[in-house]
Amino acid sequence: MPKEKISLNSIYISERLQKSLQPVSNSSLTAITAPMGYGKTTAVNWYLSRLAKDSQALLIRISIYSQNLSIFWKSVQNAFSFAGLNFLENYDCPEDEASAGFLTEILCYQLEKCENCYIFIDDFHLLKDDRAATFLCRMAGRIPENVHLIVASRNHFISDDWIVRLGGRLHRIEIDDLRLNAGELSAYIRRCGTSLTDSQLEQLLKSSEGWFAAVYLNLCSFSKSGELPGKTSDIYQMFSASMLNPLPEDRKEFLSAMGLADEFTEEMAEFITKREDVHQILKMLTRQNAFVTCLNDGQTYRFHHMMKECAFRAFRTLDDSRQAFYYERYGAWYEKHGAYIHALSAYRRNQNFAAILRVVQKDAGILLASLKPEEVLEVLNRCPVSVLKEYPLAILVLMRCMFNWKNIPKMLGLKELLMASIREHPKLSEEERGNLLGECDLIQSFLMYNDISRMSQFHRSASEKMTRPAISIRSDGGWTFGSPSVLMMFHRKSGDLDKELEEMNQCMPHYYKITNGHGQGAETIMSAEAHFMRGNFVDANIALEKAYTQIQGNGQESIALCCDFLAQRLSICMDIKTRNTFEERRKELLQGHNTTWVNIFDSTCAYYYAVTGQTERIPALFGAHMLSTVNFLAPGRPMMEMIENQVYLAQGEYSKVIGRSESILAMSQALHYDLVALHVQIQLLAANWKLGKTEQALDLLRRSLSQAFQDGILMPFVENYPYIEELLKGSFFGINENFLFRITRMGKEWEMRCDQLKKEEAYPPVFKVLSDRELEITELMAKHMSNKEIAQSLFLSEGTVKQYINQIYSKLQIPGDVRVKRKYLLEMMEGKS
Q: What is the per-residue DSSP string for 157-197?
């Protein structure tokens, strides 16, 4: 037996590895890739601890425990909060390229304020979604120089393409950087206070191949027996033999049970195991076992994955009753602390269906939506009908989930089960029966989406039965399915617009009553949009202001965004001041941490800039045609596709417009979106006309005019007047001449307004005092042309140009000598751009 004082938990970082870690501070992304047990986490923690001592670096550590994106995202939010950064708290997990880009923008903006920031993501291999790796690479390509990503993984996760694209921003540490060579192994053994002969050292190097975990376990065995394990020892057998088997049975069971947790505190361990000596056990374990660590907060413990694997193997040897006991305790702990996904997992292993339904009811379908539908269906199919009937509120939540997942047969099957539950439940009061039946009506109303009359029947029925708000609908959630327009959602049939407006007015108060005001203001903004479509701008503006007042402070952001969409379109037609500039409103929405809201607002910007011909200012989501990367809800997608079609039209991509329109029209027809279809038909006729397909364009124009005339809808033609002006000069049998006259008159006014707006928005507001000629000269000055060159370009004398320039300086009140004046003028223009 060795006589030296043994300290196997000593940290050893070789000089070679220290040198490999040095470039981390100069790299945007450091990828550390090696199998389990090579000391990846230890090396990074050692490096970060030294940074923390020597600088004011901000350290953010994120651990991954499963492939569930929602659980991962919660870990990210907790890690940032622990570091004192709470700006991610209200953000949803990004699920598409647009939301990922949005998140990158926020991270860059917020982290740029830090002196130096290191974000360490451990066990990245557990997150099997390829989108996560792509997101990290894209972020590494954009983050400011003060931010450094460090990612540890067992598997290579960066593609060859990204390795080339990142270039010097990427630093890689591989298995050979972490593996101990003969000299390093000898130094580590001395650090641990252990002595080996040359032959033993050679045997250990050969059997372990420099693998830290194997070396550590060999030394643990050597410290107990004085001999190194045999060559045929399995690493897990070695671990169990060294770390678990020597422990008393109760301690071994403690480790087995707590190995089920990703992380845990003393309080959680006491609850799970019902032991009072948890503090002493954990103190002993962290002192004697390098595979049990206490995290930086001083309260949370974590097992190494090797420890977790061996603990779980030991857990499976416990008798069924003990396993059931621990799963039940885990479920209860997670349920109590609102970790409903974890609670569902624990109860599911125990097949405690009553507890599962209780958690579903508490969650109200929010976190449940992050699970795969087939997982939920599998549990539902195994759950006894008798147990399901005991939880009618959970059935309602599951009905709503099935609707969202488009599993209507299962939704209707659950409805029948709910009816049976209500009939057979002996303890339900009449009031609660009414609430359940009413909420069932509310959920069924979604099956009648955008048929206001039929939806209203369900809402009225629900309103009469219910005495409390619904639990399956959050009042602060979106109401418009991602659409920027209520009218586009609910104008179902040509000739029925007035009827639809009246039905909306009668329907919505009943809906508000049972949903705590969800979507409040919808009927008002729909009325405002209808006035606008008919060219009644003053009435539209009055109704718009009513809608803004109605939603003030009530959290109905989706309705506010519909107001913004109308306000921007209306501002082109009349002299009104919008409540915010595009930049101000977008910044406000960014602070709300909701990607969906920003996407809707980008659609408003895209439409405005497309119809006014300012294509260079269209947001990238639409201007660069990234819409296919966004996961829009099905009812909102036709509106987004129609707006992208308008962008293609503005960009002169007429063949694209024709090629895409058929599928958008099919979507619109399936959802009975008459107004969306009208917009697309007009885009289609404009594209055909531009490509010389006159007959097709005239046929589409006749159909569109006939469709729109029944409700007096003018604006889709007016907003596209520059494309169809010549076509409108023809004769259209059966179309009211006054209707055509109004379109033409308003179209000409529209063109003049757009020209004026483009001129105003191309320069800072102070430039409004300049004449057209003065603006023209200012543009040439911005191109760094001399007075002589400007004179030649405009066929003016050099003296006249000089007079114009002096007038420009005078009107803009620019002081100083000639060179200073010109420099200041150019800075004013660049500031605008």
A: -S-HHHHHHHGGGEEEE-HHHHS--HHHHHHHHHHTT----
The C-alpha R_g of the chain, in whole angstroms, comes to 34
Other Cβ atoms closer than 10 A to 617: 16
Q: Which residues contact 477 (CB under 8 A, 6 or more apart)?
A: 518
- Where are the chain's structural domains? 15-178, 182-233, 486-754, 766-832
Residue type, 644: E
Tens digits of per-residue pLDDT, 810-830? 888 888 777 788 888 877 776
Q: Exposed, middle or buried, 66 (CB in 10 Å: 0-12/13-18/19+)?
A: middle
Dihedral sign from CA coordinates of 152, 156, 161, 164: positive
For the stretch 2-55, pLDDT in tens is 444 556 667 888 899 999 999 999 999 999 998 887 888 889 989 988 887 767
Fold for the domain defined by 486-754:
1.25.40
Going by DSSP bridges, is the β-strand pair 29-33/170-173 parallel, antiparallel, or unpaired?
A: parallel
d(CA 273, CA 326): 7
Contacts with 795 (C-beta within 8 Å, 6 or more apart), sequence order: none
Contacts of residue 735, defined as CB under 8 A and 6 or more positions apart, other chains included, come to: 702, 705, 706, 709
Contact 534, 526 (CB under 8 A): no
Are 434 and 465 in contact by the 8 Å Cβ rule? The answer is yes
End-to-end CA distance of the chain: 77
Same CATH topology for 486-754 and 766-832: the answer is no
Torsion angle of C-alpha atoms 201, 207, 209, 212, degrees rounded to 10: -80
Query: Can you tell me the distance from the alpha carbon of 265 to that of 274, in angstroms, rounded to the nearest whole number?
Result: 14
Distance in angstroms (rounded) separating the CA atoms of residues 533 and 676: 12
> CA–CA separation, 224 vs 2, rounded Å?
9
Dmax (CA) of the chain: 108
CA 324 to chain CA mean position, Å? 37
- Give the separation between CA 323 and CA 483, rounded to whole angstroms: 49
* DSSP tag of 8: T
435-444 residue pLDDT tens: 999 999 999 9
User: Looking at domain 15-178, which CATH architecture does it have?
Assistant: 3-Layer(aba) Sandwich (3.40)
DSSP tag of 519:
T
- The tens digit of pLDDT for each residue in 74-89 reads 888 888 988 888 888 7
The tokens of 604 are what? Answer: 């408003």
How is the beta sheet containing 292-294 ordered, strand by strand?
264-265, 300-303, 292-294
Nearest to 504 by CA among 519, 518, 524: 524
Residue 225 has pLDDT above 70, yes or no: no
**Top-tier CATH class for 766-832:** mainly alpha
Cα–Cα distance measured from residue 485 to residue 715, given in angstroms and rounded to the nearest whole number: 14
Nearest to 671 by CA among 408, 448, 519, 498: 448
Residues linked to residue 122 through DSSP beta bridges, in sequence order: 63
Burial 636-667 (b: 16+ CB within 10 A, else e): bbbbbbbbbbbbbbbeebbebbbebbeebbeb
Range with the lowest mean pLDDT among 338-342, 531-535, 730-734? 730-734
- What are the residues whose beta carbons fall under 8 Å from the beta carbon of 286, sequence distance 6 or more? 292, 293, 294, 301
- Return the H-helix or E-strand segment holding 302: strand 300-303
Query: What is 426-472 written as a DSSP string?
Result: TT--HHHHHHHHHHHHHHHHGGGTT-HHHHHHHHHHHHHH-SS--SS
Q: Measured between alpha carbons, how far is 775 from 445 in angstroms, rounded to an integer?
A: 57
- Residue 539's pLDDT is what? 97
- The dihedral formed by the CA atoms of 645, 650, 652 and 654, expressed in degrees to the nearest 10: 30
